[in-house]
């Protein structure tokens, strides 16, 4: 910048620090609460410094669950969430990259129709068609199963669109050369397109993992069997029970466990995440 | 849109498309069609008899004070979320665009909430504002404001708006910052040489050039508030107290799954689909424009 305004720069830093503090505050307060003894969380204000019950609280929710909310241990729920998040992320990427490849690299009848049908899925979030979708899942007999948690959510217009845009930027010379060398479409996909798409796949994976882990309404509808619960959907039931008989030292621990995996993914892969986020909206 | 070099054959591309199209048909198009059909039926609660009634369910919907109330609540909620989320993010992005040192560190701390599930975000803020143990509720009590979102509708609305906007600030921040960094330095520096201060530069150069990003984010935020905040409402207020936070998406669920009023719930689904289609169409117009000018 051509000018030097130390006061303005100082103010900018102060505003940013204030912003960071406000954004981090709930996570900090909840984390502190999750390390306290039960009695210390029951009166306001909750202590702002770490307590000595980290192992007690986290051990209890992971291994035994919340007794008063009659919920099972959280460990298996996290495993369910992980399976669901990975299944959705991998599934979406796999079927989207294949369909984008078909749409970009082939000429066949009804190509644009297929593209628009896929595109329409973007317009119909689960929330607006919950009852009929639930009925389809029930008829197929996939309630209370990993298939039921994953399969209905893996169609992805966004991912297909992203791969399509990327494939269009791959130089034609590559396909030409591959054809001259006698490579068919399968070989070209495996040896050229897939390696070139690596960064896009990684960026998309970060976004889709978070999407999958954070699913709430769908698992709430189709899992009635407690052994199939995911951690994000289970917490609502716990906090409802907490209104009558608060068990906040445990609920806060569950909340931290539920937000930790996606947050770690975002912070660890920040550059990929930012790239994926901004790319998927283009 | 076209590749000049393509492969021959139709069997392989058809096979490649089958998984995606099958999932789309079975879990998206078929249920959407069902919702459309169901929205024109009246069924008794036991499912013993059904009657085709054309648009009666829709008529009933738009004459129902409860539904109109829910519509109003949704509009207030989305405008609140968009205004708070965009305002805070714009301020933070402008500051981050100015500072040279530490931008990446600030960004790291500001993008966390994006990764937090709406339901979990709801629980975090519920704990902050809990009338019995919440830190913020306690502080408000100290300055003479009685906080109890379980009783007062306005407070409940404020709480869900804060929780929803908190989650969306990260997203808005990243897009605003990217937008600001795409503005040519020379423009801003020329204005600085002419003697325009930071405030003046922001309002006369940066903000107008940012308007495509702002419009785009406005639509994204409204879509988010309409459809993706189900978890927040369910975890924090469950639509209460006295319907004060019963947004449309929550009402579809409550009427269909809990109240078992299938015809009305399906009609509500259809109305929501209409809103989604409309908003998505607007969003794509904006994206097109953004690509053209950017």
Question: In a nutshell, what does this entry contain?
Answer:
The complex is a heterodimer of chains A (282) and B (294). Chain A is mainly α and 282 residues long.
List the helices and strands and how they pair.
The complex is a heterodimer of chains A (282) and B (294).
Chain A: H1 6-33, H2 38-41, H3 54-63, H4 74-105, H5 111-120, H6 130-139, H7 146-150, H8 157-169, H9 172-180, H10 185-196, H11 198-213, H12 217-222, H13 231-244, H14 248-268, H15 270-280
Helix pairs in contact in A: 1-14, 3-14, 4-8, 4-11, 11-14, 11-15, 13-14
Chain B: H1 11-38, E1 41-43, E2 50-52, H2 56-63, H3 65-98, H4 103-110, H5 118-129, H6 135-142, H7 153-181, H8 185-193, H9 198-209, H10 211-227, H11 230-236, H12 248-258, H13 262-293
Antiparallel strand pairs in B: 1-2
Helix pairs in contact in B: 1-13, 2-13, 3-7, 3-10, 5-7, 5-11, 7-10, 8-9, 10-13, 12-13
Give the CATH topology of chain A: MetI-like fold
Which strand order do you get reading across the main beta sheet of chain B? 1-2
For the CA atoms, what is the radius of gyration of chain B?
A: 24 Å
Residue-averaged pLDDT of chain B = 86
Structural class of chain A comes to mainly alpha
Sheet of most strands of chain B = 2 strands, antiparallel
Strand content of chain A: under 5%
Q: Give a count of the beta strands of chain A, DSSP E runs of length 2 or more.
A: 0
Q: Name the helicity range of chain B.
A: over 70%
Give the distance, in angstroms, between the N- and C-terminal Cα atoms of chain B: 19 Å
Number of domains of chain A: 1
CATH homologous superfamily assignment of chain A: MetI-like
Helix and strand string of chain A, N-terminal first? HHHHHHHHHHHHHHH
Number of strands of chain B: 2
The general outline of chain B is globular
Residue share in helices of chain A? over 70%
Question: How many H/I helical runs of chain B?
Answer: 13
Low-confidence stretches of chain B at least 5 residues in length (pLDDT < 50)? Answer: none
């Amino acid at each position: 910048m051509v000018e030097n305004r130390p006061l303005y720069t100082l103010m900018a830093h102060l505003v940013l620090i204030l912003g960071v503090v406000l954004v981090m505050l709930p996570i900090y307060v909840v984390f502190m609460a999750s390390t306290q003894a039960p009695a210390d969380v029951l009166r306001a204000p909750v202590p702002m410094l770490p307590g000595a019950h980290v192992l007690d609280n986290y051990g209890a929710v992971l291994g035994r669950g919340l007794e008063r909310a009659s919920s099972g241990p959280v460990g298996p729920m996290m495993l369910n969430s992980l399976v669901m998040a990975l299944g959705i992320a991998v599934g979406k990427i796999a079927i989207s990259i294949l369909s984008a490849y078909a749409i970009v690299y082939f000429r066949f009848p009804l190509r644009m129709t297929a593209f628009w049908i896929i595109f329409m899925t973007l317009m119909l979030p689960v929330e607006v068609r919950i009852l009929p979708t639930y009925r389809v899942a029930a008829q197929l007999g996939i309630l209370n199963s990993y298939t039921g948690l994953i399969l209905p959510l893996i169609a992805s217009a966004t991912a297909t669109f992203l791969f399509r845009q990327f494939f269009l930027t791959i130089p034609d010379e590559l396909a030409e050369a591959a054809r001259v060398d006698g490579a068919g479409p399968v070989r070209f996909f495996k040896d050229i397109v897939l390696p070139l798409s690596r960064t896009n796949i990684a960026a998309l994976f970060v976004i889709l993992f978070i999407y999958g882990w954070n699913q709430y309404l769908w698992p709430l509808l189709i899992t009635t069997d407690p052994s199939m619960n995911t951690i994000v959907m289970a917490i609502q039931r716990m906090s409802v029970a907490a209104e009558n008989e608060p068990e906040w030292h445990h609920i806060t621990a569950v909340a931290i466990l539920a937000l930790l995996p996606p947050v770690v993914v975002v912070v660890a892969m920040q550059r990929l995440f930012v790239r994926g986020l901004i790319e998927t909206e283009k | 849109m076209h590749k000049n070099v393509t492969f021959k054959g139709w069997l392989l591309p058809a096979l490649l498309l089958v998984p995606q199209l099958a999932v789309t048909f079975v879990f998206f198009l078929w249920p959407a069609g069902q919702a459309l059909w169901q929205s024109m039926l009246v069924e008794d609660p036991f499912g013993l008899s059904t009657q085709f009634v054309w648009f009666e369910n829709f008529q009933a919907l738009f004459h129902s004070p409860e539904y109109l109330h829910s519509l109003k609540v949704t509009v207030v909620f989305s405008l609140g979320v968009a205004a708070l989320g965009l305002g805070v993010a714009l301020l933070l992005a402008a500051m981050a665009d100015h500072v040279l040192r530490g931008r990446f560190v600030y960004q790291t701390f500001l993008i966390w909430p994006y990764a937090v599930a709406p339901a979990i975000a709801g629980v975090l803020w519920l704990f902050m504002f809990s009338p019995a143990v919440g830190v913020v509720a306690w502080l408000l009590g100290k300055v003479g404001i009685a906080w109890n979102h379980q009783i007062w509708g306005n407070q409940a609305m404020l709480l869900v708006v804060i929780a929803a906007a908190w989650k969306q600030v990260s997203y808005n921040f990243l897009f605003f910052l990217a937008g600001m960094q795409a503005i040519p330095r020379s423009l801003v520096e020329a204005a600085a040489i002419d003697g325009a201060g930071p405030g003046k530069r922001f309002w006369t150069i940066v903000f107008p050039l940012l308007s495509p990003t702002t419009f785009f984010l406005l639509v994204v935020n409204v879509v988010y508030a309409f459809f993706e905040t189900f978890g927040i409402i369910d975890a924090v207020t469950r639509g209460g107290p006295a319907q004060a936070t019963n947004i449309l998406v929550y009402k579809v669920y409550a009427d269909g799954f809990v109240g078992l009023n299938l015809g009305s719930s399906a009609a509500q689904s259809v109305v929501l689909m209409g809103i989604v289609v409309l908003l998505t169409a607007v969003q794509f117009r904006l994206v097109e424009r953004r690509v053209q000018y950017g």
